[in-house]
């Protein structure tokens, strides 16, 4: 929900277009199949089963970008990073640094409010095996471009994983006509690409595969968020 915006606001228009989008036949079929089969434990849920738009503060100075919704997380609840362990990790950390009003993210109507941050995914539909095809990624890229364009206070962008990083970099390079070699993803890395261009910060994705193996600890993620907080408020680390 973006409660304070009129229906004319670009973020609302993007949201409305996203939730009705059926441009990728394979992903449309998959998201609906998952929604109809469900997972044991969520059988009483009426799955969302549609694309997942971004969520958060329309005045955000920090944009957080993930890969794509989870089959039984966002694809079930209808809100990005909501109802799965990645979301639990992410929003708990956002709460700890003051970007969220609560640590829990269970459903669209759980009262979660973000302040200063907006969360989205590079691809808005759940892909099989978490792997959108190159064509599907291109199909969806315009929504990310428009979200970035609509967040006029952006000063920093936190990319969760290499896939998000590659897509954000592609968007930023095209938007600001940046030439030169492609930068490489690295956890904790910050890229300053020029005056007036939001800083890019990299983090490993908070997936269970990373958080349960210790590849991404809470301490590591809070450290990245502390950097993001400084960049979004002061413009420097
Ligand atoms: S992945 Fe993006 S472009 Fe493809 S159907 Fe979903 S919302 Fe539309």
**How does the helix and strand content classify structurally?**
alpha/beta
- Widest beta sheet: strand line-up: 1-3-2-4-6-5
Low-confidence stretches: none
Query: SSE order in H/E notation?
Result: HHEEHHEHEHEEHH
- Given the C-alpha coordinates, what overall shape results? globular
**Strand count, sense and closure of the main sheet?**
6 strands, mixed
Radius of gyration: 17 Å
Which ligands are bound? iron/sulfur cluster
Mean pLDDT: 95
Number of strands: 6
Q: Roughly how much helix do the residues carry, as a percent range?
A: 25-40%
Tell me the layout of helices and strands:
Blueprint: H1 10-19, H2 25-37, E1 55-56, E2 62-66, H3 74-77, H4 85-96, E3 117-121, H5 134-150, E4 156-160, H6 162-175, E5 190-191, E6 199-203, H7 208-211, H8 218-234
Parallel strand pairs: 2-3, 2-4, 4-6
Antiparallel strand pairs: 1-3, 5-6
Bound molecules: iron/sulfur cluster.
Question: Can you walk me through this structure?
Answer:
- By secondary structure, the protein is an alpha/beta fold.
- 38% of the residues lie in helices and 10% in strands.
- It contains eight helices and six strands; from the N terminus they run ααββααβαβαββαα.
- Strands 1-3-2-4-6-5 form a six-stranded mixed β-sheet, sandwiched between helices.
- It is globular, with a radius of gyration of 17 Å.
- It binds iron/sulfur cluster.
At a glance:
With 237 residues, this protein is of the alpha/beta class. The protein contains eight helices and six strands; from the N terminus they run H-H-E-E-H-H-E-H-E-H-E-E-H-H.
């Amino acid at each position: 929900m973006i409660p304070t915006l009129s229906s004319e606001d670009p973020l609302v228009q993007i949201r409305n277009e996203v939730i009705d989008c059926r441009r990728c036949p394979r992903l449309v079929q998959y998201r609906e199949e998952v929604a109809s089969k469900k997972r044991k434990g969520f059988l009483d849920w009426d799955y969302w089963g549609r694309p997942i738009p971004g969520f958060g503060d329309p005045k955000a100075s920090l944009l957080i970008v993930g890969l794509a919704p989870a089959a039984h997380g966002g694809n079930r609840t209808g809100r990005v990073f909501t109802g799965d362990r990645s979301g639990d990790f992410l929003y708990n950390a956002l709460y700890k640094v003051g970007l969220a009003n609560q640590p829990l993210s269970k459903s669209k109507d759980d009262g979660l409010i973000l302040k200063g941050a907006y969360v989205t995914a590079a691809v808005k539909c759940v892909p099989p095996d978490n792997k959108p095809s190159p064509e599907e990624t291109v199909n969806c890229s315009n929504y990310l471009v428009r979200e970035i364009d609509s967040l006029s206070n952006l000063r920093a962008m936190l990319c969760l994983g290499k896939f998000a990083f590659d897509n954000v970099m592609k968007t930023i390079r095209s938007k600001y006509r940046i030439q030169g070699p492609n930068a490489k993803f690295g956890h904790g890395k910050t890229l300053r690409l020029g005056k007036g261009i939001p800083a890019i910060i990299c983090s490993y994705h908070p997936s269970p595969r990373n958080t349960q193996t210790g590849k991404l600890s809470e301490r590591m993620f809070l450290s990245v968020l502390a950097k993001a907080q400084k960049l979004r408020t002061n413009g420097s680390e």
